[in-house]
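ingest -> fold -> write
write: protein_1
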Amino acid sequence: MASGNLTHLTEFILRGVSDRPDLQMPLFFVFLVIYGLTVAGNLGIITLTSVDSQLQTPMYFFLRHLAIINLGDSTVIAPKMLVNFLVSKKTISYYGCAAQLGGFLVFIVGEIFMLAAMAYDRYVAICNPLLYMVVVSPQICLLLVSLTYLYSLTTALTVSCCVFSVSYCSSNVINHFYCDTVPLLALSCSDTYIPETAVFTSAGTNLFFSMIIVLTSYFHIVLAILRIHSSEGRRKAFSTCASHMMAVTVFYGTILFMYLQPRTNHSLDTDKMASVFYTLVIPMLNPLIYSLRNKDVKDAFKRFLKSPCQSFKLM
C-alpha cells in the first residue's frame, strides 16, 4: 500500500551470513551442528539441574535459567537462519521480523542480568559462606530470576516498539542473518534519532549496571581468595567460580568488542560476525564450560545415565 513515496513493507529480505552461493550448504551444516549441540547441551543442563537432588542449590538454579535463556536465544535465531541457507528467497514477514527482534532482546538482556545474578551468588558463596543459604534463599533466587525476566520483557517491548515506529520505504534488504536493531534502523527513511538513542541508551545502561555487579562481585571474590592461607583452600574457592568467570569473559568480551569499536571502523559485517558468536556459539559453549569443568554436573550426569527413571522419580 503506497502513500506518496513511502511503502508499507510486508516483508524483509535477510542477506544472511554470506552472499556466496557455494558457501550456503557448508554453512548450513556448520550451523546445524552448532544448533544441535546447543539444544542437546542446554536441555541436558535443564534436565540435570531439575531432577538431580544434589544440584538443588542456588548456583544450579541460576544455571538452569541461564540454559533456558541460551536455548531461547539460539532458537529465536537459528531455525529461520537454517531455512534461509536452503532457499533462494530469504524473506521474513514484517511481523515475523518484529517478533524475532523482540525475542532476541528478551533473551540477550536476560543473559546479561542472569550472569550478573550468578556473579552475586558466587560472591556470597565465597565471601559469606555461613550466611549463604540465608542471603541467597529460594525466595531471593526466585525474585532475582523473576525480576530478570520481567525487566527483559519490558526492555524488549520498549526497544522493539521504538525500532518499528519508524517508516520503512522501498529498501527491505537487511544486511544481517536475523532482525537486529542497527541493520533495521539503517533501512529507515525517516528520522531515527529517537529510536537510535533508545537502543544505545538501553544497551549501554544494561551493560554498565550488569558489569558493575560482575566486577564488584569478582573484586571481592579475588580479595577473599587471596586471604585464604592454604593453597588447597584457594584452589577450591577458585574452582567454584572458574566456570562462571570463563562464561562471563567470553560473553562480555564479545559484546564489548562490538559496542566499543570506533564509529569510523564500525561495519555491519563486523557486527554480523560478533552476533554469530553471542547468539549461536556462546549458547553452545556455556553447557560445555559448566559441565566439563564442574565435578558436580559430571557426577549428576553419570547418576542420570545409570538410572534415568529413578532420577525423574525424584522430581
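write: protein_2
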Amino acid sequence: IGLGKSTLVNTLFKSQVSRWSSGWGSEHKIPKTVEIKAVSHVIEEGGVKMKLTVIDTPGFGDQINNENCWDPISKYINEQYEKFLKEEVNIARKKRIPDTRVHCCLYFISPTGHSLRQLDIEFMKHLSRVVNIIPVIAKSDTMTPDEKNEFKHRVRKELETHGIEYYPQNEFDDDMEDKNENDKIREAMPFAVVGSDKEFQVNGKRVLGRKTAWGVVEVENPNHCEFALLRDFLIRSHLQDLKEVTHNIHYETYRARRLNDNGGLHPISANNTQESNL
C-alpha cells in the first residue's frame, strides 16, 4: 500500500516537484514510483530562491523478496559522494564543486500503531550510516491522538534499542541552546504527517486537506497534524545544518574510507549541478 511519499513532497514544497511534468494536471493521480528518479525545481522561501532536488524512490519493501532492498538507495547516495570526491581531488578542481549529495532522507513509517517492521529497522540502520534520516509517520489521520502519541513513543524506543540515529543527532548539538531546541524536536519525532494536493473550503478559507466522513483534515493546521512543524524544520530552521552534517560527518566518513582503501584517487572530472538534495 502506498504511503503517499510523492504527495507529501509536493505538499511540502507547495510545488509539483515530485514526478510531475507539465503534462500532469491536478485532477490526475500521481503515478506509482517504479525507479529512483531525481527531479530538480526552484522554490522560493522568504523571498529567497533555492534550487531543490528531490530524489523519489519506489516503495521498497513491497516486493515478495525484500532482502537487501535498501541497496539501490544506499548505492545512489554513495554514488553522489563519489562524484563530489572525484571533483574535489581533481588538480584543476572547480571553484564551486557541483553538489549532488543527498542531505536528507525522509523515511515513511506505516501508521500501524504497532511495532516497527523488521524491514524498517534494517532499512534505517543501513541508511543512517550514510545519510541524515528523518522518520515520519505517514497518513497519520488514520490514528487517534492517543494512538499517535503512543506509537511515536514506541518508535523512538525501538530506534534507540537498535542504535539507529536519526537527525538531529544528539552528538552534533553545538551548544546548550542547540541542545534545548533539538531536544524539543527529538521529542516530537517521528513527525505525524498528512499530505494532500486537494483544496477544500473550510470556514470561508481554501485549505489543503483530506476529506473524511467527520470533516476535513487540514494539512497545515498544527491541531490536525505535524506537517507545518516538519516543513519549518526542514526548510527554515535546519536546512543549513542538514547540509553541514552531510558534509562534515557522512561525506567525510565516505571520503576517509575511500582514500584509505584506495591509497588516493586519480584526478577525474565530473559534470552535474544541484544545490540541496532531499
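write: annotation protein_2
The first strand starts at residue 37 and ends at 45.
The CA atoms of residues 217 and 223 lie 10 Å apart.
pipeline exit 0
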